[in-house]
Backbone:
């Protein structure tokens, strides 16, 4: 999540059980929900979109990564903008922007237009997502803040669970375009509720100018790197465009680090990385979520194009993961609070890796009970073991006054990892061009891909064992309210200063 420092200014006055409080929760849940669900549902639509547009694998990668690029590059900027000009205002702008971009996606006549619209969707998400949590922090009295965030988190988990089911049904029954059209009426509801019921807040002490140089550098760097990695297999790694994109991407990301170390008001204060525990937790996050991002990008394509699943069937294939997360994450979080995070952060990624490795057993028969469900259960159990201690360690390892930015960094690290994995893993597995339309070649490449992802998860577990330390913590992060969208780290009931 974006920087969520406790808002200053007018004293928050809403109580959780009041009609006014419920309206605010409704607006924030629906607003952030359309962004998080869209990120997962689009993956289910990939095979159908690819067939409709006769697209290559690179085009499918861009449809996913265009959204992630702008969201990851602008997430911190969106949080800072809300602090300065008003969280409600930025939340509304983001919701309207997201709705208009969704209309562009739904009406896209070709892949190029769809990729552009997806990038614009990511801009809208970067404005509305950080505002949703910040609005809750700003609006509710301290005694009810945890309950409001818990409701936001739990309902977000429900939305993540039912989103792929609804999306799969819409794709099967009508068209993949309805996956984007459905955002528009939801956005209208959010706008109407927010205009009437959400109070405005801002941070009058938010210092200095917005970090525009840093924003431009990190976004440009991610775009250059992604372009080079995605287009390299098709254009050739020595082609001028690919080389220029890769070099520019690396230089811009280097410039971003330099800017953040020298600018007076950085959006990413590098001092937070002085904590070895924080840096280690984010390194583990990068590896684990990279493995997840690459594997989950390919899984719906394989289920539909190899095993013959419908979009609806592939949409519900991962529902056990969400059920396991909702049922067990809080318990594993509480366990980590008692015994320390090291054991779970070491073992959890290994269990995730075993689940991914089990997916290599998938054949053209695609029997759900024997080939998919066992892998999904093990995979979900590994996530439940891992995500709560992983996120709480990232937050608690930073100084209390930087808990909000620590959460933002952890979220952005996960998204950047998924972005790079989606760009690299298909090529590494030999899934390029129109290979995804040929079942035998696709399933062969998929087995290589999930094996690579499994090895990465095991490496993440070993990294955690070597770098994460248990230590007494006087300011524990509560673990009772957790949701886990599959595209990013779960939000926890954060204690911020």
Residues:
């Amino acid at each position: 999540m974006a920087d969520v420092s406790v808002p200053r200014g007018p004293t928050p006055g809403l109580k959780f059980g009041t009609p006014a409080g419920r309206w605010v929760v409704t607006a924030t849940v629906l607003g952030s929900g359309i962004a998080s669900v869209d990120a997962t549902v689009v993956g289910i639509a990939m095979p159908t979109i690819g067939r409709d547009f006769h697209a290559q694998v690179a085009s499918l990668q861009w449809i996913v990564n265009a959204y992630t690029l702008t969201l990851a590059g602008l997430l911190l900027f969106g949080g800072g903008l809300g602090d300065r000009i008003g969280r409600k205002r930025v939340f509304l702008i983001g919701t309207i922007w997201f709705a208009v971009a969704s209309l562009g996606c739904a009406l896209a006549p070709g892949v190029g237009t769809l990729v552009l619209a997806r990038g614009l969707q990511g801009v809208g998400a970067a404005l509305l997502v950080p505002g949703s949590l910040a609005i809750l922090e700003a609006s509710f009295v301290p005694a009810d803040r945890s309950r409001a965030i818990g409701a936001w988190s739990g309902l977000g988990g429900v939305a993540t669970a039912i989103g792929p089911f609804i999306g799969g049904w819409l794709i099967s029954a009508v068209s993949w375009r309805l996956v984007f059209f459905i955002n528009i009426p939801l956005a209208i509801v959010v706008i109407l509720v927010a205009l009437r019921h959400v109070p405005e807040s801002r941070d009058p002490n938010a210092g200095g100018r917005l970090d525009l140089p840093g924003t431009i550098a990190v976004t440009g760097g991610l775009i250059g790197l992604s372009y080079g990695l995605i287009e390299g297999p098709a254009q050739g790694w020595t082609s001028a465009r690919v080389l220029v994109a890769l070099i520019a991407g690396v230089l811009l990301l280097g410039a971003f680090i330099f800017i953040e170390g020298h600018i007076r008001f950085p959006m990413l204060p590098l001092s937070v990385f002085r904590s070895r525990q924080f840096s280690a937790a984010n390194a583990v996050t990068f590896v684990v979520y990279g493995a997840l991002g690459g594997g989950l990008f390919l899984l719906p394509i394989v289920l539909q194009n190899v095993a013959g699943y419908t979009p609806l069937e592939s949409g519900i294939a991962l529902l056990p993961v969400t059920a396991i997360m909702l049922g067990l994450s809080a318990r594993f979080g509480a366990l980590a609070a008692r015994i320390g995070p090291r054991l779970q952060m070491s073992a959890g990624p290994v269990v995730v890796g075993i689940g991914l490795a089990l997916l290599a057993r998938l054949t053209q028969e695609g029997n759900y009970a024997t080939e998919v469900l066992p892998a999904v259960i093990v995979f979900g159990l590994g996530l439940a073991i891992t995500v709560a201690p992983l996120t709480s360690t990232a937050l608690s390892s930073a100084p209390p006054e930087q808990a909000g930015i620590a959460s933002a960094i952890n979220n952005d690290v996960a998204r950047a990892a998924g972005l790079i994995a989606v760009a690299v893993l298909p090529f590494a597995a030999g899934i390029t061009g129109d290979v995804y339309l040929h079942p035998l070649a696709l399933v062969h490449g998929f087995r290589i891909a999930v094996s690579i992802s499994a090895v990465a998860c095991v490496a993440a577990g070993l990294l955690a064992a070597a770098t994460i330390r248990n230590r007494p913590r006087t300011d524990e992060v509560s673990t009772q309210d957790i949701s886990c969208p599959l595209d990013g780290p779960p939000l926890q009931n954060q204690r911020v200063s």
In short: The radius of gyration is 21 Å. The first helix runs from residue 19 to 53.
